[in-house]
Amino acid sequence: MHELGITENIMDIALDKAKEAQASKISRINLVVGELSGFVSDCIEFYFEFLSKDTIAQGAKLYFEPVPLQLRCRSCSMVFHPQDTLWSCPECQSQSVEIVGGRELYIESLEVE
Amino acid sequence: MKRIEVVQNILEANESIAAQNQRLLDKHRVFAINIMSAPGAGKTSLILQTIAKLKDRLRIGVIEGDVASTLDAEKVKDEAAAVIQITTRNMSESCSLIANMIDHALMSLPLEDIDLLLIENVGNLICPSEFVLGEHKRVVISSLPEGDDKPIKYPMIFADANAVIINKIDLLPHVDFDIPAFRRAVKELNPKPEFFEVSCKTGMGIEAWCSWLFDGVESNAQKVINEGG
Ligand SMILES: Nc1nc2c(ncn2[C@@H]2O[C@H](COP(=O)(O)OP(=O)(O)O)[C@@H](O)[C@H]2O)c(=O)[nH]1
Ligand SMILES: [Mg+2]
Ligand SMILES: [Zn+2]
Q1: pLDDT more than 90, % of chain B
Q2: For the residues B156-161, what does the mean pLDDT come to?
């Protein structure tokens, strides 16, 4: 997976925002990660530790808030969390669904000193 | 302790750098192609064939992002007008190029002297589909020995390809690859790509691919002029 690229982007955004706020240290980064985005948080942590060395983000804690996959049925509008890999509506069994939650991948906030 | 609200999409950050890259490329009238495939499908070979065919008509630059370097990669250095090898900070492995890396590479390329920029992405069919780089066209190579089920296994990368190249066509007598089925599977995901059946070994089909590229370079330059660039 592409955790390295993602981690580089996390670093860039966090350093940018911290600089804007004239912070001297980033102590925590709060991330929102959808189930579908497919990122392995251990990998992000591993790369983060590597990339943050000698920056103001060194030693920062990463906090991952997971967002479950949510689908909406196109036939009856029911919103549901699929129980298996087959995406069918529990109400009307339709397989025509759209993804309404679970693709998120963003930095929600930073804690700085 | 202070809390800063960010709410910034991490992939959007990539997209805005990519858009910036494209503006820089357009300013210098450079037409950029992102070449993606599984390892060994023939990205480097296609780049070499393309340079051989077009070097008298276009000035070609290459960004090498494929870390699995072969002997051929050395040849690219000899043949292209300019080559940049991407290294991802000190990490030896990244699963994809990202816009940020291209941004750095563009600073060291003589953009004034380049008409066509070929970007060899990392050999991977999953991750590069998530990251735009600032390229004008996205190209996916599938080769016959890989089998014809790639569009089913890796739909994302085919879904936004502008061209799909079927390489190693010289091996057709030896492998089981249903070309019409492959094309149908791609078209179900994405009706728009151009298809090219080529062999980087015999040179078959390279002409058609190169004329598509050449037209792309010309029409992009025209578009930039029309937009007052
Ligand atoms: N038979 C055959 N072999 C090819 C063709 N194109 C590339 N190859 C071989 O496939 C291998 C991988 O090619 P390369 O261009 O390095 O792939 P990359 O990893 O995608 O850059 C090399 O040994 C090439 O010589 C082709 O059209 N036919
Ligand atoms: Mg290669
Ligand atoms: Zn339903």
Answers
A1: 62
A2: 90
Q: What CATH number was assigned to the domain covering residues A2-69+102-112?
A: 3.30.2320.50
- Enumerate residues 6+ apart whose C-beta is below 8 A from B80: B47, B51, B60, B61, B62, B118
The topology (CATH level 3) of B2-223 is: Rossmann fold (3.40.50)
Residue B124, token pair as written in the block: 């991977």
Tell me which residue in B2, B8, B126 faces A112 most closely, judged by beta carbons.
B2
- Whether the full predicted model's pTM is greater than 0.90, yes or no, is no
Which residue in A5, A9, A14 is closest to B94 by CB distance?
A5
Phi-psi region of A65 (alpha: psi -120 to 50; beta: other; left: phi over 0): beta
Query: ipTM of the assembly?
Result: 0.71
Which positions in chain B touch A4 (Cβ < 8 Å)? 88, 91, 93-95
For chain A, the structural domain boundaries read 2-69+102-112
